[in-house]
Design goal:
Blueprint lengths: L35 E3 L5 E3 L6 E7 L4 H19 L4 E7 L5 H10 L7 H10 L1 H5 L7 H7 L4 H11 L2 H7 L4 H8 L2 H18 L6 E4 L2 E2 L6 H13 L1
Parallel strand pairs: 3-4
Antiparallel strand pairs: 1-2, 2-4, 3-5, 5-6
Helix pairs in contact: 1-3, 2-6
């Protein structure tokens, strides 16, 4: 979903918004789908680290187009390209919806790296249920949140929309979930990474796909992305 420059609402703004050594040649029989590592840029990568084609998605856990890609495109990407060792895929959280995204991101990054993609996939699959609740935040609470800290806002919204219960039901201890939501340094890092993404790739909405270092304009789904990936693999 394209929303222009990222902005955190409710009083806070974004600035402008053990793995084994792989073989030299990728093998179709290698377990690249289970090769999952955190990257220095704050994302999590699946696949052959030496893959010829490197795909990055800047995505939002509350973005409908991102959810659609996760459900419809990612399975084909994994089966046809990542499993072969020819393509690696990295997901980097990007808070396009500001405060609404903070809780899901903090909680999604709180789980062990091996659980990152299963939790992300589950959040995307249940996105409509989580953010589509019909009741509204009470007026008095909205007023209170106007002067609350970013972490307090993230914690409340994560609870209100069910994201805290969501990760706890999947094995994350409640105490750890609350600690991640209360960690101001994690929000500072998220802001810095969003700013870096804006500067490097002019990310202003989600999903934004970066293929071998180049952001792909007007590419929001698998139908548009797959020919680009196929061509890159064939070069």
């Amino acid at each position: 979903m394209r929303f222009g420059l990222v902005a955190l609402v409710l009083g806070v703004a974004l600035v402008s918004s053990a793995e084994a050594a792989p073989p030299k040649k990728a093998s179709a029989h290698a377990a690249w789908l289970q090769t999952v590592v955190a990257t220095p840029e704050g994302g999590v990568r699946m696949g052959n680290p030496a893959a010829k084609v490197k795909l990055i998605e800047f995505g939002s856990r509350t973005c409908p187009l991102c959810a659609r890609f996760d459900v419809e495109g990612l399975p084909a990407l994994k089966a046809g390209y990542i499993a072969s060792g020819k393509v690696s895929y990295e997901f980097r959280d990007y808070p396009v919806h500001g405060a609404l995204d903070l809780g899901p991101i903090l909680l999604g990054q709180c789980v062990p790296t091996r659980a990152f993609f299963p939790v992300l996939d589950a959040m995307m699959a249940e996105q409509k249920t989580l953010v589509g609740r019909s009741d509204a935040i009470p007026d008095a609470k909205q007023k209170e949140l106007q002067t609350a800290t970013p972490n307090a806002v993230a914690s409340y919204l994560a609870g209100f929309y069910g994201y805290t219960d969501f990760v706890v039901k999947r094995g994350l201890p409640l105490a750890k979930a609350n600690a991640c939501l209360a960690d101001r340094k994690k929000i500072d890092v998220l802001v810095a990474r969003a700013d870096a993404a804006n500067k490097a790739y002019a990310v202003s909405g989600t999903p934004t796909f970066v293929l071998n270092g180049a952001a792909q304009a007007n590419v929001y789904d698998w139908a548009a992305l797959e020919p680009l990936v196929r061509a890159a693999v064939a070069k």
